[in-house]
Design goal:
By secondary structure, the protein is α+β, with helices and mostly antiparallel strands. The chain is built from eleven helices and 15 strands. A hairpin with a 2-residue loop joins β9 and β10. α1 crosses α9 and α4 packs across α5.
Amino acid sequence: MVGGGQLARMTHEAGIPLGIRFKLLSDTPQDSAAQVVSDVVIGDYRDLDTLRAFARGCDVITFDHEHVPIEHLRALEADGIPVRPGPEALVHAQDKGVMRAKLDEIGAPCPRHRIVADPADVTAFAAEGDGFPVILKTVRGGYDGKGVWFVRSEADAEAPFRAGVPVLAEEKVDFRRELAANIVRSPHGQAVAYPVVESVQVDGVCDTVIAPAPDLAGELAGQAQQLALRIAQELGVVGHLAVELFETTDGRILVNELAMRPHNSGHWTQDGAVTSQFANHVRAILDLPLGDPRPRVRWTVMANVLGGDYPDMYAAYLHCMARDPQLKIHMYGKDVKQGRKVGHVNTYGDDLDDVIERARHAAGYLRGTVTE
């Protein structure tokens, strides 16, 4: 696996029961996965020679993130190394302009959009629709709210162009909530779909995921799952695909983003599904039969643990575990920094309000924003 973050850490954990030997290319020995994987290579994924040396002897290469240069992945494939997902799929998660063009081609529903050249072009884009505000995104490198601007006027539109990369303009969507459809697809075409979830964002960062999405009409949930499966097939995705969606106020779904790796919106599956997203990603990239994606319980809620003012989160375990013996805590081994994702908690049960309260209480107590 290229990348040493928490996704690699949890994917490694899922491979242990299968006896999978896991090799990691990590930026530093302190990275989340590098702390727990025995076979670690420290190096720069942007360097082709480093990637080639790392890939020797590997049966398959997969990713913790989407940032490896596409031309490097094509070179690995030319060397005979299976890359999953492959470069022709992964480019759609790297470049929002390429993604939007492909989704338009296959008829996937998306917000109105186009590449814009300068602030005046943003004003022209806004005038073609309902006017300002509009959303601007750098086509590469954005995540967790970074590289995204909410623009109310032409004067507001200057900052995105300073990055020196193309800028994508999108209409501001009137949406009821954000959803995510997570699927896994193997090389021989087997695919499974997890229940569609609601993703609650705070300041552009995922705060809570509710599985399945409450009060989501069965027809719309089915449309979201079928859309994700079709996107995976059309793009040739192998492994896990997360399709982030808007549920609009008039009852439609629109594609917001794509992620071709295990995803924050699927962390609930570790404790709430028969087979987790991480286990199914491992199965998919090795072309093993996929596992059952169905939920084990009525409701599962994941709440992200963000860094706060209390660096010693271990001291909070006593309270959280005693208060809720069913609580599942997953920490990433990261240094605590303000607002940084350092872990998540999963709760489950039959009473949704209770499950949400338990998850948010635990995440808040670990962060230090809840004290009793």
